[in-house]
């Protein structure tokens, strides 16, 4: 036992490390089981068009509560899943679940676009585009109501890997649109704006958080919105929590918002309720 071995300081450090390693391997093991038993959930967060004030889309967000470890947040789950390769299974689970849901909403007359987060690791699989399209075909989901959210890190790597760009174009040809998520936080390069078929810019919530406090942030966000508009992109702001933020964003010409002001991520039934209101 490490506890008996050395001085207090060293003991507590290695103890922490020990705990972290245990938690990680526990997460890996339980995640495998959860995927097998389809014990993950998908919740949906509404996106509101600022012109009409209507909910026009939702973002699918994975949720996992394990009976042994409790809630594991996506911020902890996704990086582990990416490293272990289990992200492929999470991806197929979310794609199938969300596209089935998209079809169900359509059949109820709810016209909602459904956004799904995918990581670059998933697109390293040369059959990714094919498998997405075959899932959509299987569940009868029109491709043009599905959006795929990628991050700047994804964009950076896709730039260097022609097979990823090829797959993106293949999906775009079928009507899927791409969203650049967390815009402004990564290795922003304008080159991938030319290379990649992106149609929506999603301004990261860290900018929105300081929107009311900093004039510099206001100019920055105003600039991002104008940049997006001039590139003919739809500009969406995430993490919008207050009416003041919403009004300011609207005055800049921002197209849509997502955030706790409208709703956190909720179940499919709650989305139907929110849309009707
Ligand atoms: P993201 O794609 O940028 O998603 C937005 C995150 O911000 C979500 O956290 C959402 O719950 C949170 N959020 C929404 N509105 C507000 C707000 O008004 N204020 C604040 N402070 N936060 C807000 P969540 O669900 O914990 O997901 C975290 C990240 O994990 C996501 O960031 C995404 O990158 C990743 N993720 C989630 N689900 C999936 C998935 O199915 N697949 C993959 N590959 N990644 C996922
Ligand atoms: Mg996202
Ligand atoms: Mg984001
Ligand atoms: Mg616009």
UniProtKB/TrEMBL annotation:
**How is this protein named in the record?**
Bifunctional diguanylate cyclase/phosphodiesterase
Where does this protein come from, organism-wise? Lysinibacillus composti
Q: Give the domain of life.
A: Bacteria
Residue intervals of the EAL domain: 24-277
């Amino acid at each position: 036992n490490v506890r008996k071995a050395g001085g207090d300081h060293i003991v507590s450090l290695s103890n922490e490390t020990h705990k972290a390693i245990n938690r990680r391997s526990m997460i890996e093991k339980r995640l495998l089981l959860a995927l097998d038993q389809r014990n993950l959930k998908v919740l949906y967060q509404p996106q509101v068009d600022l012109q009409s004030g209507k909910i026009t889309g939702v973002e699918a967000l994975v949720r996992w509560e394990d009976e042994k470890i409790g809630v594991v947040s996506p911020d902890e789950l996704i990086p582990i899943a990416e490293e272990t390769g289990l992200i492929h299974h999470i991806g197929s689970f979310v794609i199938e679940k969300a596209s089935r849901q998209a079809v169900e909403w359509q059949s109820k007359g709810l016209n909602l676009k459904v956004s799904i987060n995918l990581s670059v690791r998933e697109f390293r699989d040369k059959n990714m585009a094919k498998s997405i399209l075959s899932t959509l075909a299987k569940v009868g989901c029109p491709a043009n109501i599905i959006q795929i959210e990628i991050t700047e890190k994804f964009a950076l790597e896709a730039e260097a890997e022609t097979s990823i760009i090829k797959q993106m174009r293949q999906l775009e040809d079928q009507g899927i649109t791409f969203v650049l998520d967390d815009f402004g936080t990564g290795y922003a390069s304008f080159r991938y704006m030319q290379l990649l078929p992106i149609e929506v810019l999603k301004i990261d919530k860290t900018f929105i958080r300081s929107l009311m406090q900093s004039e510099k942030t206001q100019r920055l966000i105003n600039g991002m919105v104008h940049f997006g508009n001039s590139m003919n992109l739809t500009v969406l702001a995430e993490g919008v929590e207050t009416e003041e933020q919403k009004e300011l964003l609207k005055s800049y010409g921002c197209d849509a918002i997502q955030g706790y002001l409208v709703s956190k991520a909720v179940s499919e039934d709650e989305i139907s309720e929110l849309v009707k209101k």
